[in-house]
């Protein structure tokens, strides 16, 4: 069952400037998350990345996918209140850049989940063009007492 009414701040511990998703469009707990990130000139990482043409760093695109994947995992009832950790990147490809004014359309599908570890495949699109794809590994912490 999909749930679009997700409060990111209640799920992820990240806050500005490291919260890298702005809105969850749709989530199927334990399976997938569709989120958006608005790239703006107001972000220091965009301003500092290049003197020639400000753009969103590709490494942060991967982190945006990881945060969306964490939302997919942490909306599972058994992981409510836990923390998700980004465990690794495999097969990341970049086919473009995101610039101020672009909206990152982030889609992550959890392809494997065993106990407290999972693997997901993430894609980022800008204006229907895929600019980033990666396979991500996640670990979910035990709940603190």
TrEMBL record:
CDD domains assigned to the protein according to its UniProt record, in alphabetical order: FabZ
Coiled coil in keyword set: no
Keyword annotations of the record: Lyase
Pfam families named among the record's database cross-references: FabA
This enzyme's EC code(s): 4.2.1.59
InterPro entries: FabA_FabZ, HotDog_dom_sf
Entry keyword Lyase: yes
GO-annotated molecular function: (3R)-hydroxyacyl-[acyl-carrier-protein] dehydratase activity
Family note: Belongs to the thioester dehydratase family. FabZ subfamily.
NCBIfam families assigned: PRK00006.1
Protein name (Swiss-Prot/TrEMBL): 3-hydroxyacyl-ACP dehydratase FabZ
Lineage, top ranks: Bacteria, Bacillati, Bacillota, Bacilli, Lactobacillales
Gene symbol of the encoding locus: fabZ
């Amino acid at each position: 069952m999909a749930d679009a009414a997700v409060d990111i701040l209640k799920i992820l511990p990240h806050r500005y400037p490291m919260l890298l998703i702005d809105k969850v469009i749709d989530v199927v707990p334990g399976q997938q998350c569709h989120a958006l990130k608005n790239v703006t000139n107001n972000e220091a990482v965009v301003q500092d990345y290049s003197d020639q043409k400000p753009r969103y760093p590709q490494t942060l695109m991967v982190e945006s996918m990881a945060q969306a994947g964490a939302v997919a995992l942490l909306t599972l009832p058994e992981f409510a209140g836990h923390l998700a950790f980004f465990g690794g990147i495999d097969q990341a490809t970049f086919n473009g850049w995101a610039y101020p004014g672009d909206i990152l359309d982030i889609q992550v599908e959890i392809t494997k989940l065993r106990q407290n570890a999972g693997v997901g495949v993430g894609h980022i699109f800008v204006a229907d063009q895929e600019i980033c794809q990666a396979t991500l590994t996640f670990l979910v912490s035990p709940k603190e007492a």
